Amino acid sequence: MKYTITLGALAALSLAGIAPSAAAQGKPAAEKHHMKPMHAMPAMKAAPDPTTADFEKFREVLEDDNPAELFEQKGKELWTMKRGPKNASLEQCDLGLGPGVVKGAYVKMPRYFADVDQVMDAERRIVYCMETLQGFKAADLAKKPFSSDSSTPDPVSLTTYVAGQSRGMKLAIPQKNPKEREAFEVGREIFHYRAGPYDFSCATCHGEDGKRIRTQVLPNLSSKSGAMAATQGWPGYRMTGGLMHTIQWRMNDCFRQQRFPEPGYVSQTITDLLTYMAVNANGQVYKGPGIKR
Ligand code: HEC
After folding, report:
1. Is 27 inside any structural domain?
2. What's the rounded Cα separation, in Å, for the pair 27 and 21?
3. How far apart are the C-alpha atoms of 267 and 264, rounded to whole Å?
4. 274 found inside a domain
5. Can you give the pLDDT of all 293 residues of the chain as single tens digits?
6. How far away, in angstroms, is 132 Cα from ligand 1 center?
7. How far apart are CA 79 and CA 99, in angstroms?
8. For atom 18 of ligand 1, which residue has the closest CA?
9. Residue range of the domain that includes 192
10. Is residue 22 part of a domain?
């Protein structure tokens, strides 16, 4: 009941958020229906931005009553329920702190897992547990991995639950194992690798302070403070579209913006990028699943 009200209020607020901002920027109201695709827009230097200020206000209000909690709850149910071909729960899933330990695990991933001799990020590890413990097929999970109007994939809710269990904790991504250091190095290379029709790299859009595309401020993910944007607020309830997304979705969408081929769902490439960005943000406090514009 509580969430019915919240979601309604959220929709109203997000609509209210668009109108005054467009007006504040002196844009004709019709223009918001005919936006150019954002990847076609050149990145520009930031000016104080009323849209961002508006959004931040809404976000603060809403974070007290965050719709992401709904997905945390659903994820918790999915975690404890016996499911899949093997009719098992995920309660024995080892997220790096031992089988069944969820608390604090999210802020310590990506990390090395000896049983697979690989570095895995949270969602990748959860998918791995769904495969090994419950008998789900990774290929099936990869078919529709992102939220849509019709459904929220189980790994999204599960990742949101796991992330919520690290709320208020400091990022402490380990770099002891050689494979963890390799993931960081490879991630850094991918981040700076320029290619594609526009010769873009991640760094083209996220490599300096104060860049923006249209109204969207682009965090400098290569800086210590900016890198936290790759973790903070993710998984996030996205006001545009009203869907719950994890950082896997964000990465996929940025590869699209970069006009790169779509990366594989929970692939090593994504783990490497997440390792690079999360290690850069080590020591900062994770506030839990959030709200994104
Ligand atoms: C063409 C420009 C462009 C490129 C290239 C690009 N991104 Fe993005 N990125 C964006 C935009 C736009 C957003 C959304 C910002 C918003 O919604 O406020 C974004 C958001 C993000 C976020 C979330 C930040 C937050 O505050 O939540 C992360 C993390 C990210 N990008 C990482 C990457 C990585 C890694 C790459 C390279 C694989 C990449 N991006 C390539 C434009 C780009």
Report:
1. no
2. 9
3. 5
4. yes
5. 333 333 334 343 333 333 333 333 433 333 333 334 444 444 444 455 677 777 777 667 666 678 899 999 999 999 999 999 999 999 999 999 999 999 999 999 999 999 999 999 999 999 999 999 999 999 999 999 999 999 999 999 999 999 999 999 999 999 999 999 999 999 999 999 999 999 999 999 999 888 887 777 899 998 888 999 999 999 999 988 889 999 999 999 999 999 999 999 999 999 999 999 999 999 999 999 998 87
6. 32
7. 13
8. 216
9. 35-293
10. no
Scanning 172-231, the segments in alpha helix (DSSP H) are: 178-192, 202-206
Q: Extract the tokens encoding 290.
A: 């959030």
Tokens in use for 99? 């089988």
Give the pair of three-digit tokens for residue 16. 């209210």
Q: Which residue has the tokens 């290619």?
A: 195
Q: What is the pTM of this model?
A: 0.83
Query: Within a domain: residue 84?
Result: yes
- Residues belonging to the chain: 293
If you take atom 35 of ligand 1, which residue's CA is the nearest one? Answer: 202
Which ligand 1 atom is at minimum distance from the Cα of 38?
Answer: 12
Please say whether the beta carbons of 73 and 162 come within 8 A: no
For residue 232, what is the domain's CATH number? 1.10.760.10
Number of domains in the chain: 1
Residue type, 163: A
Whether residue 254 lies in the annotated active site: yes
Atom 37, ligand 1: which residue's CA is nearest? 202
Dist. CA 205 → ligand 1 center (Å): 7
Distance, in Å, from the CA atom of 232 to the CA atom of 228, rounded to the nearest integer, reads: 6
